[in-house]
Specification:
alpha+beta, nine-stranded mixed β-sheet, globular
Length: 507
């Protein structure tokens, strides 16, 4: 018997459904959202997966926690998604697809912890997978108790990229052209709250190029099918309010959509490492936290605007490692750093800025931060599930700016928050290098920097680490020319801010 950590009691009220929509490999984003939902205490009686969202559904039903799911996405070799056909197939003029599913079966499923026997044995919930029965040109819903590897492959076999999958007397493919999430199936099962995790883009921008327009076709199909379901739910809610509830709801169906405010980077950027899984996971966590903090009991209006996003824009990502002496039981970073035999704490940070132009214009210059922490007294390789990064954030002192690095993590069932800042100040002596590579750090017990300080120290960035940092910079959502322009803009901004900070002293 397998249990899902997000499953609710059968008699819990309201009856909730978690709907894991598709989005290609980018559905790693959903793992971060699931961490936030688990932390908020949300539990569900019905689960549904479509297209890429089925990976996360299968991980949940295999018994993984959202934190374990995130860890597996971070460790996943994305190259395993691509598996080529036998060479002779490419000599034909009528290829069955660009590749085959061997990589999914032999590498992706095991690496993600998908155990088909375990997920079929998962109890205490209902769960459904959406497939396209290509033979009949219909949507087919498969109960998790009936799922096997062939049907799972079919659920993610997007036309053109993977071949159709024979099963029984029919051929099956990805259902995204019909439906990318199945609200109505949850409604028919009596659910009163629907929680889709939505990865498909919905911005007004129309891009040139064959690949982008293929993506636009998916966006139109997925969003269009969703909006048709909203119409049906509005009609049903009118019946419920009039006293006619054909599926047993005791109140009108409410909708809570968790989505990125900006269209997520497309799979090629993820596959090529221009955006890292830890960054997507951190974005998913932040999107869910933002929605949860603002949500109302009434949920969202049943209108097409629920999935509206801003267009993707050139962003920036880089990785940075800082380490130094750190002592538990002290609150002052300098004292913690000078304590004899203080153990070393290392922060391996991944910074992600979704929209570089907006970042440069915002006075707070906020970005996302994720990464791992090595600290022997607590553990090595501790994974942070979200964080905060701000570059040249103003302070109350006009001659001082902060660079903020903050990571939230859990270890041994306890929540911790590692908060560090670099001080860039106009002070005597040209100590630019020290200012921009020295992180004064405190460890808080709890989920934010308001918790009790239980340790402190000073971390630093060495010259070799800085060289490595520069080598990790990547620009997603951009052409080659845009990538060069974005890197130049960020470099000019970074050096320009430092120059302005020190200009008075230099002059």
């Amino acid at each position: 018997m397998t249990r899902c950590v997000l499953a609710a009691a059968a008699d819990a009220s309201p009856r909730r459904a978690l709907l894991l929509a598709g989005g290609g490999m980018r559905v790693a984003w959903q793992a971060g959202a699931l961490i936030a939902l688990e932390e908020a205490g949300l539990r569900f009686q019905h689960f549904d997966g479509a297209s890429g969202g089925t990976f996360n559904l299968s991980m949940l039903l295999s018994g993984l926690t959202p934190q374990e799911m995130a860890q597996r996405w971070r460790a996943l070799d994305l190259k395993a998604f691509v598996s080529l056909l036998p060479f002779e197939d490419y000599l034909r003029t009528d290829w069955p697809a660009l590749g085959d599913a061997d990589g999914l079966r032999q590498k992706i499923f095991p690496a993600l912890g998908i155990d088909f026997a375990a997920l079929r044995a998962c109890e205490g919930l209902s769960a459904t997978y959406n497939l396209c029965n290509f033979t009949r040109k219909t949507l087919e819903v498969v109960e998790h108790t009936q799922l096997d590897a062939d049907l799972h492959v079919a659920a993610v076999s997007l036309a053109g990229f993977l071949p159709s999958v024979p099963h029984g007397q029919c051929l099956y493919t990805d259902a995204v052209w019909i439906k990318d999430t199945n609200l109505w199936e949850a409604v028919k099962r009596g659910c009163e709250e629907l929680w889709p995790l939505w990865c498909i883009g919905n911005s007004p921008a129309y891009h040139d190029g064959l690949f982008h327009q293929y993506v636009h076709m998916i966006e139109m199909s997925a969003n269009g099918a969703l909006f048709e379901e909203l119409d049906r739910i509005r009609e049903l809610n009118a019946r419920i309010e009039a006293g006619d509830s054909p599926y047993g709801q005791r109140q009108p169906v409410r909708l809570h959509v968790i989505k990125s405010p900006q269209a997520l980077p497309l799979d090629p950027d993820f596959y090529l490492g221009r955006v890292r899984p830890e960054s997507l996971i951190a974005l998913g966590y932040q999107a869910a936290r933002t929605y949860l903090e603002a949500r109302t009991d009434q949920g969202l209006p049943l209108t097409p605007e629920i999935t509206t996003m801003t267009d993707s824009a050139p962003g920036l990502g880089f990785r940075e490692t800082m380490s130094g002496p750190f002592t538990l039981g002290v609150t002052d970073p300098k004292i913690g750093a000078s304590t004899p035999d203080a153990p070393t704490l290392a922060m391996h940070a991944a910074v992600y800025i979704p929209d570089l132009a907006h970042f440069l214009q915002d006075p707070a210059h906020p970005g996302g931060l994720s990464g791992t922490i090595d600290f022997a007294p607590l553990g090595m390789g501790i994974q942070a599930h979200h964080g905060v990064f701000k570059l040249f954030s103003p302070t109350e002192a006009p001659d001082t700016n902060y660079m903020l690095y903050e990571l939230a993590f859990e270890q041994g069932g306890q929540a911790y928050y590692l908060a560090g800042h670099k001080v860039v100040r106009q002070d005597p002596g040209f100590d630019l290098w020290t200012d921009t590579t020295t992180l004064y750090t405190q460890l808080h017990k709890g989920a934010d920097d308001q918790g009790e300080v239980i340790g402190a120290g000073v971390l630093s960035l060495g010259a070799l680490d800085l060289i490595k940092l520069l080598g990790t910079m990547e620009v997603p959502n951009a052409s080659a020319a845009q990538r060069l322009e974005a890197l130049a803009s960020f470099g000019k901004f970074f050096l320009g801010e430092l120059w302005e900070t020190y200009a008075k002293h230099v002059r």
